[in-house]
Design brief:
Oligomer: heterodimer
Shape of chain B: extended
CATH architecture of the largest domain in chain B: 3-Layer(aba) Sandwich
Largest interface: A-B, 28 and 40 residues
Order of helices and strands of chain A: HHH
Strand content of chain B: 15-25%
Largest sheet of chain B: 5 strands, mixed
Distance between the termini of chain B: 122 Å
Number of helices of chain B: 18
Number of strands of chain A: 0
């Protein structure tokens, strides 16, 4: 009984050692991966910062004003006027949609037998 | 300590009697004494050795433990955690109140040279001079070859320039990473932002420090590593700022002024929505400070904050407000306005020698801008009380704003508040203050008499100020200021839909040698709108304007600052979401008949 136990525990030791060896290298690989991802994140942050700066630069009021003037034919943008602001009560309700008749319409009627008969002269 | 004698008489006599040598006794005693001294010294040395031993033991333990830890740990390259923008930004961004970028950072490179590593300094110098036009090939070549081991060539490079330098291919040219401050909106709000420059420079990095404006005033906050990820949000609104600067620049050109300034302030919070001063500059490329001549001629000079001017008739409302608050007058009280008024050797005249007198109601003193009327009201108040009131309004102190220039703009106040000072201060002469102070004082009136402190920072909550005048007085003052626009000196400010209330001010500039220059004026218009519930205060100042559309050049604020301010209000009020109010038209015959029907 005892030798079997020895062999089994030795094999268990080998197995755990192999597992620990693999785990060690897997962890190191993950750490390297993480470093790569962190570098990537840092680079992306830097790029985002630059994009934001560029966005702000391209949207500077001076340039937008010039663009609005250049494209006046197409856009017709003018400075905002006081008259353009109104109360919500001034906004008209949208017109009720007109029903579109596409097919035949069947109508049906019924006559009340108790109703007094209409006399025709 | 009792010393035992070396030759005790008893033993000496005893020894002599026995015929022994007494010197033996002395030697014996000396030996005994040395024995004691040696014992003591040994004890002390042992203690010292022990202490030293403990010290060495502890030091070696620390070193040993540290070596153990170092030997045990896995060597990793130190890196910051990827949490946010703190990786790149060493200086916090500045945003406007709606989150648009006013100042941010950009990663770029600086160029430096180590001439010892250079292969062909002459070639490199000519190539560099071709890339950067401001460099001189000859001077650069001399600096490359005079034996120095290090020199800066350029502080920042564009990516294209960097590529070109790469293409020179000289191993002695190096690039160092640099974080550069960028103001994407160019000249907009340049006096608020100020500018930034490199401080201590190293090869691997350089610190960016604020040189003026809010960048310098809040330098510690902007550079704080703990807060570099959170941007600083200003109260400035970029859209309003752009519109105001555009209108102001047009107005300045049309009125032939040499400078202009405008301040737009929220009357409840004191937040400055726009602070413009023209001419302006590009904070990305800040011009050098003028070392000679008048500093106010430099574009760096902020007329809205640094400019200290006699603000003229805009001060009359303060005299009237105080007099009403003290119960001395009410809007209908008639005051003596018989011009010219003589006071000692001084003569107080009205504008172009008018006479609005003999008697004028307080409302008309404001509406017609009567100097004599204001002077009489000032005399009713008295100097001490007037000074205290102007102080409470913040007009005698440097303006409060988060700008490094603000504390330097000290108000010019005479040391002795004599009666003639009381008279002139009532109509805004003899004392000079910053336009920002004027805006804050008008905001205090518009805010129902509760003091407003200007600020450039956007915040959700603010402590309310102290009450300076009663709510009733403030309301009456606003009504009087409205009269100035409807039928007084500022009728051009009548913007349809927005009830503007305000006061004009025309002050001649003091001449260098003394006296005043009648051809050089400061025209001010301080306005609040909408008059029934004031929300915003706008102050427009033109420096040396002259309106030349008529046969005679006109230099009064009613013809210069007022139309500019009106155009600004017309442009910005819709942008702020203020809906125009329909003005109630005067009743004519037709509406009078209709009226009962409507009332039912």
């Amino acid at each position: 009984m005892r030798p079997v136990l020895y062999v089994l525990s030795f094999m268990a030791m080998l197995a755990t050692a192999f597992w620990a060896y693999r785990e060690n290298y897997a962890t190191q690989h993950q750490l390297k991966q993480m470093a790569v991802v962190q570098d990537e994140i840092a680079a992306l942050h830097e790029e985002i910062g630059l994009q934001r700066a560029e966005w702000a630069y391209l949207n500077r009021p001076e340039r937008l004003r010039d663009l609005a003037t250049l494209n006046f034919d197409r856009l017709g943008l003018l400075p905002m006027e006081p008259e353009q602001l109104g109360a919500s009560a001034q906004v008209a309700y949208p017109a009720a949609p007109v029903l579109v008749i596409t097919g035949t319409i069947e109508t049906q009627g019924s006559l009340d037998p108790n109703a007094p008969q209409e006399q025709t002269p | 300590m009792i010393r035992t004698p070396l030759r005790p008489l008893a033993r000496i006599l005893d020894a002599r009697a026995k015929g022994e040598n007494p010197d033996v006794i002395e030697r014996e005693n000396i030996n005994a004494r040395h024995e004691v001294m040696r014992d003591k010294a040994r004890g002390r040395a042992e203690k010292r050795l022990l202490l030293l031993g403990i010290g060495f033991f502890m030091a070696f333990t620390v070193i040993g433990v540290r070596m153990g830890i170092l030997a045990d740990s896995v060597p990793v390259e130190p890196r910051t955690s990827a949490g946010g923008t703190e990786i790149t930004a060493q200086r916090a961004d500045i945003l406007d109140r709606r989150g648009r970028i006013l100042a941010t950072n950009m990663l770029t490179y600086s160029l430096y040279a180590q001439p010892h590593d250079m292969v062909d300094p002459v070639h490199a110098a000519t190539e560099l001079a071709a890339i950067f036009p401001e460099l001189d090939a000859k001077a650069l070549e001399r600096r490359f070859t005079d034996g120095r081991s290090f020199l800066w060539v350029r502080k920042v490079l564009s990516p294209e320039q960097m590529q070109k330098v790469h293409e020179i291919g000289d191993p002695g040219l190096y690039f160092g990473p640099r974080e550069m401050r960028l103001y994407p909106n160019g000249n907009l709000a340049s006096h608020v932002l100020g500018g930034a420059a490199f401080g201590a420079e190293g090869v691997a990095s350089a610190e960016v420090i604020g040189t003026a404006g809010i960048e310098k005033d809040l330098d510690a906050r902007l550079r704080d590593p703990a807060q570099s990820g959170t941007p600083l949000t200003l109260s400035i609104d970029l859209t309003l700022q752009a519109n105001i600067e555009e209108v102001l620049a047009t107005g300045m050109r049309m009125m032939n002024a040499k400078g202009a300034a405008a301040i737009l302030m929220d009357v409840h919070s004191g937040e400055v929505l726009s602070l413009a001063s023209l001419p302006s500059f590009d904070p990305n490329d800040r011009p050098a400070v003028a070392t000679k001549g008048d500093p106010s001629d430099s574009p760096l000079f902020d007329r809205a904050v640094q400019g200290v001017y006699e603000l003229g008739s805009t001060f009359k409302i303060f005299a009237v407000a105080q007099a009403m608050d003290l119960g001395l007058v009410n809007p209908e009280t008639l005051v003596d306005a018989n011009a010219p008024m003589h006071w000692g050797k001084f003569t107080i005249k009205e504008w172009s020698n008018h006479n609005y007198g003999p008697l004028l109601s307080v409302t008309d003193v404001i509406a017609k801008s009567s100097n004599v009327g204001a002077a009489r009201i000032g005399l009713m108040i008295g100097g001490e009380r007037q000074r205290a009131f102007l102080k409470a309004m913040g007009l005698l102190d440097p303006p409060q704003a988060e700008l490094i220039e603000a504390p330097g703009a000290k108000a010019l106040v005479p040391d002795r508040w004599s009666e003639i000072v009381t008279i002139t201060a009532s109509y805004g002469h003899g004392i000079a203050s910053s336009p920002l102070n004027l805006a804050a004082a008008y905001a205090t009136i518009a805010n129902g008499g509760i003091k407003v402190t200007p600020t450039l920072l956007h915040a959700t909550h603010r402590e309310p100020g102290v009450r300076v005048i009663t709510a009733e007085t403030a309301k009456a003052c606003v009504a009087m200021l409205r009269r100035v626009v409807t039928e007084g000196t500022a009728t051009l400010a009548n913007v349809p839909g927005y009830a503007v209330a305000g006061k004009t001010g025309t002050a001649e500039k003091p001449r260098k040698g003394g006296g005043y220059d009648s051809n050089k004026v400061i025209n001010t218009f301080a306005a609040m709108f909408p008059a029934n519930d004031p929300k915003y205060v706008l102050v427009v100042i033109l420096d040396e304007p002259v309106e030349t559309s008529g046969p005679v050049p006109r230099r009064t604020a009613g013809w210069t600052s007022v139309p500019v301010a009106a155009e600004i209000i017309r442009r910005i009020a819709p942008l702020m979401g203020l809906r125009p109010q329909v003005e109630s038209t005067s009743l004519d015959g037709l509406t009078a008949v209709k009226e009962p029907l409507v009332a039912e």
